[in-house]
Input
Amino acid sequence: MLKSQPSSSHQEPASRTSDVEECALILQIAAGERAALNQLYRMYRPRLGRFLARQTRRQDVIDEVINDIFWIVWRSADSFRRESRVSTWLMGIAWRSMLKNLHSRHDAGAGEPGLDESMQSSYEPFLDHERTDWVAKGLARLPLEQRMTLELAYGQGHSLEEVAAIMDCPVSTVKARMFHARIKLRNVLPTLSTTPAAQLSEYVGKKGLTRDWKEYRDEE
Amino acid sequence: MKNERGPDHCQIWEQIPWVVNGTAVDSERRRVETHLEECVDCRAEFAHQQQVHAALQADTSVDGDAEAGLQRFWAGVDSVAAPAKPARASAGRRFDTRFLVGALAATVVIEAAGLVLFGTGILSHDESTQGYRTLSEAQPAAARGEIRVVLRSEMRIGELAALLDALQLEVVAGPNEAGAYALAPRPASRVQEDRLARLRATPGVQLAEPIAGLDSGLDVAR
Output
């Protein structure tokens, strides 16, 4: 029997502090305390770097976006409302900064290699971690929104509602992105599959499914 | 063992990732667990998602130098012509002062802990070499509060930050049991304005008075 307990590794990645402590830091940042921003930066840099690495492997781009993120934090800390956790607020800034950077680089015709290409080559050395390698390759083939939904949920440990807040979209959109990400990942991860992809496709299209599932197909 | 499919099955299938990552509420988690006992497909999917989850958790290889990144960040901030301060208060931005009380209290605790660590030599990191003033750096001007304030509940954090910035004041202690904070001029402050009068004229400030002598009622955390 499978146990549905969350993985023991589930936790706030790269963050051992409580939300209250993080809120105190935001308050200090709002008051212009550089030391507080330094502390928040050190706490979140690994997490943000990992998040951004799902979009690009270029370290200079990752560094640039991280600085963009903390520039926004520095300038707008007083706009933080305690309607969400600090981590959710900050990851929302990260998501928007990532999109902005992506668009600006696209507009500028930046010559970065395609994500699939760069990520696949980047992950090839992980021969001893076949599963991680396969998943990384599978993720690289997903559209950005689906890939980052998986990263936010599995890599960063956010809830459905938090992912919706971070990506500034309805919960139903997150569900749809997760749905498609799972289906596509299963199709490109033969070594992980325990049921044939065709079987999944069969019951996705099976008569009697809920309206939501049809909407997912429409969105696709 | 049943292998039924239908609306409930689809809802469970949809819920699986959030049970796998541990964020589903207990009722949903129990619902999924119950369904897994009788649905072979969802068990397979659950196992698959556990592997995907484990793979994403394991993949943490991120390079980069945080300290170098910070140096670049502050160099960028300082090079900007606009005042290198956080955004000022704006209409509609509201920060609950109930949170302010708790957060400032936490700040004082953190500051106290930092001072203890510095005092015992446990922490050797000194950001003063970068020209930054840290919470735990010695601040003679802020050794004791000069003004005691009590804030109204409607006071916004942005307003407070802007006010303290304009008057070159900082919170050095508080809140005490009465909810009062001790303020002191920032080092090298050049403000000529009557700070007390300005504070008293601010709608969000319920009380502002000078702290006389050593009996401030607000022990600075040092």
User: Anything to note?
Assistant: Residues 87-99, 107-143, 213-222 of chain B have pLDDT under 50 and may be disordered.
